[in-house]
Specification:
single chain, alpha/beta, DNA polymerase, domain 1, TIM Barrel, 2 domains, ten-stranded mixed sheet, two-stranded antiparallel sheet
């Protein structure tokens, strides 16, 4: 079982004052004051002692940082002015700065976040009746090379720290009205989540912990291109997260064209790992399938996919490709999408077509990116 999945991971260090602080080192070359949520528990508590404060202050500060929608240390009004000033001198309030904010016609909101080293990532807030879902990133860029996705166009720059992953949820939470709350988290933004496994699991631990965000594991979905070793480790983490595996093709030859990293794994091994995830957790696995016109959307592809996954307790999520300006591929028309869906259903496979959210602000599946023009625009605002 992974050490990063225990909800009591801080209790041994601080007893009843357990805190959702993420013990992840900032990237090399970081000269800023440490972000408060990047600091190790021992560092934070030791610092409080050096300024003459009791341990219970840590819990007060935690409450402000995670439960309340504040933008600075100055808003922690039950702390003394002196302590707030000292916090601001010793820590950064956040791991990043918001340099772009777009709102779509369907009220989906997308943020462009600039990290301390100037790199950029995007995250998204989606609204549905009775449901508020946030989509977060785990890397700057992506190394998987999926041919339909904007996220990997410039390759991968680095992993996000655990705090940088977790804080995306907080910054999106602060966008919401007082009567709104986050109900679901999907780890489907920029990057391959399981390629940054350690930091991802630390962040998810805080999201689930009662001393953190308090979100149920079943409300969190992690999407992966299919890394078998990490899927198996994920299965044994001790929580019932949802797993979504991006297939995009019914055979290895076509999948390697669409998802180049498939060459080193193959569908047989990926499906075996996904089967093990279901066996260990009891959680039904979702298979994501981006439909590309004339590439993987033909009736014979649907039939082959059905034969590949039949008999499994699974669900297929069809995703007509969302437009990416740098790519020539397009989504199939609605009749072709409907036909593909009906073929799978005819084989008894639960299948849905994903509803597009935020496409008019490039916030839909496959559209999040690290874009040079975004980088240049952000730097011009300095």
């Amino acid at each position: 079982m992974s050490a990063f999945c225990h909800s009591h991971r801080w209790s041994a260090a601080v007893s009843s004052e357990s805190l959702p602080i993420l013990p992840a080192a900032a990237p090399a070359g970081d000269k800023r004051p440490p972000a408060l949520l990047d600091a190790a528990v021992s560092e934070w508590l030791a610092w409080l002692a050096t300024v003459g404060e009791k341990k219970f202050r840590a819990k007060q500060i935690r409450r402000w940082m995670i439960e309340r929608r504040i933008q600075s240390f100055d808003q922690m009004t039950d702390l003394s002015t002196s302590l707030r000033q000292q916090l601001a001198e010793h820590f950064s309030f956040s791991s990043f700065e918001t340099v772009g904010h777009q709102i779509a016609s369907d009220r989906t909101e997308k943020l462009l976040l600039r990290l301390h080293d100037g790199e950029l990532v995007e995250c998204v807030l989606m609204r549905d009746p009775g449901r508020r879902t946030v989509c977060i990133s785990t890397q700057v860029g992506c190394a998987m090379g999926c041919v339909f996705c904007a996220s990997g166009l410039l390759g991968v720059k680095r992993d996000l720290t655990a705090a940088e992953i977790f804080e995306q949820v907080l910054v999106l939470h602060r966008l919401m009205e007082d009567d709104e709350k986050i109900t679901n988290v999907v780890v489907m933004g920029i990057g391959e989540p399981l390629a940054n496994y350690k930091n991802l699991m630390q962040a998810l631990d805080v999201l689930c912990s009662e001393d953190g965000f308090g979100l149920g594991a079943r409300r969190i979905t992690v999407s992966t291109v299919g890394l078998p070793k990490q899927i198996r480790e994920f299965a044994r983490c001790g929580r019932q997260f949802n797993l979504a595996v991006s297939l995009h093709a019914p055979n290895d030859e076509l999948r390697t064209e669409i998802v180049p990293v498939n060459k080193g794994t193959g569908l047989k091994e990926i499906l075996a790992a996904a089967d093990e995830y279901f066996e260990v957790t009891g959680r039904r696995v979702s298979y994501e399938y981006v439909l590309l016109a004339g590439v993987n959307d033909q009736p014979e592809h649907a039939e082959e996919l059905a034969r590949l996954i039949r008999g499994r307790n699974c669900h297929v999520n069809l995703i007509p490709m969302n437009g990416v300006s740098e790519l020539v591929m397009t989504a199939p028309g609605e009749p072709m999408t409907h036909q593909f869906c009906e073929i799978l259903k005819g084989w008894g496979i639960p299948t849905t077509v994903r509803k597009r959210k935020g496409a008019d602000i490039d916030a839909a599946c496959g559209q999040l990116r690290l874009n040079r023009s975004d980088t240049d625009a952000a730097k011009k605002r300095d």
